């Protein structure tokens, strides 16, 4: 299957969604996302980190260092209240659009 | 919450750039190690796994650079957005802006003026040697002492390294005709010696000048630099000239 380029705002939305379940470090997130989308949405990790840091700077995420399940010190990202709000705000229109597009495609 | 976070991240960036750098470095390296470990488990050789992990990331230094760029860009965007917002709001309320600007202008101006005054009067130390060791003696509310009391204070050397006495007075400079007032002081003999202020030219007073009926030079005066400039044009031959104060002749011995 072809890999899809993901626009910035969508990448943010995906990051927020994944982190809304549990705090995670960068590698786990890249694995999780690949798994969730069956490998279709493979984002270059090189663009994952900039997004994480931008969201952290924006106050949507906080981060803390703790040891991972494999006893490695890793930076775990967690959603803040502002992050949760942004996720809710962006989630609804996204669902609408996705549904609408699916409907149109079905109808055609 | 958002604002606090933003401020904190900015402050952290300014205060501890080294820590931020270290954290970013170890975050990226952890990613590579985890990715490589996963690949090794899947049967790829160690070296090959590292190579693939690096490739995935697009290089450690490059990834770090991307993060830094994103951070700076986010910061600049933020600032630009805030500034734009501020200007739009302010443009809608020109009267308010005018009032604020005027208030600030006047406030800063008044503060500057007051500070300049305070600085000259209180904060700047006196132009003498060791101004911090200078004390003023009072007796209750009185700052004036009679000559016998002064002589007692002066002779108690165990109390002070030196004592000075002065009284300020206004003198008539003119020897006749129109009066011309000038501010002056009567001081004791070692006034300049105790304060540690040398004469610019000529000499200052000595203990020998300070006795009843005057020293051998008779009535003598030391003039200030500004008086020297304004009345004698800064000329060095001012020494030895006589100066009439309240009709009495004084000899200028120093500046």
List the helices and strands and how they pair.
The complex is a heterodimer of chains A (about 110) and B (about 260).
Chain A: H1 8-21, E1 24-25, H2 26-36, H3 45-57, E2 61-67, E3 73-79, H4 81-107
Antiparallel strand pairs in A: 1-3, 2-3
Chain B: H1 2-15, H2 17-41, H3 46-57, H4 60-92, H5 94-123, H6 147-155, E1 166-172, E2 181-187, H7 191-195, E3 220-222, H8 225-232, E4 242-245, E5 248-254
Parallel strand pairs in B: 3-5
Antiparallel strand pairs in B: 1-2, 4-5
Helix pairs in contact in B: 2-3, 2-4
Unreliable runs of chain A: none
Low-confidence stretches of chain B: none
Mean pLDDT of chain B equals 80
Largest sheet of chain B: 3 strands, mixed
Strand content of chain B: 5-15%
Q: Which of globular, elongated, flat, extended, rod-shaped describes the shape of chain A?
A: globular
Strand content of chain A: 5-15%
Task: Name the helicity range of chain A.
Answer: 55-70%
Count of distinct strands of chain B? 5
Using only C-alpha atoms, the radius of gyration of chain A works out to 15 Å
Largest interface, counted with CB-CB under 8 A?
A-B, 30 and 34 residues
Order of helices and strands of chain A: HEHHEEH
- Note the total helix count of chain B: 8
Give an overview of the whole structure.
The complex is a heterodimer of chains A (108) and B (255). Helices cover 60% and strands 15% of the residues of chain A. Chain A is globular, with a radius of gyration of 15 Å. By secondary structure, chain A is an alpha+beta fold. In chain A, strands 1-3-2 form a 3-stranded antiparallel beta sheet. In chain A, helix 1 crosses helix 3 (45-57). The relative contact order of chain A is 0.16. Chain A contains 4 helices and 3 strands; from the N terminus they run αβααββα. Chain B has 255 residues and is mainly alpha-helical. Chain B is built from 8 helices and 5 strands, in the order ααααααββαβαββ. Chain B has helices at 2-15, 17-41, 46-57, 60-92, 94-123, 147-155, 191-195, 225-232; strands spanning 166-172, 181-187, 220-222, 242-245, 248-254. In chain B, the strands form 2 sheets. Chain B has a 3-stranded mixed beta sheet, with no helix packed on it. Chain B has a two-stranded antiparallel ribbon with strand order 1-2. In chain B, strand 4 (242-245) and strand 5 form a beta hairpin. The longest helix of chain B has 33 residues, at 60-92.
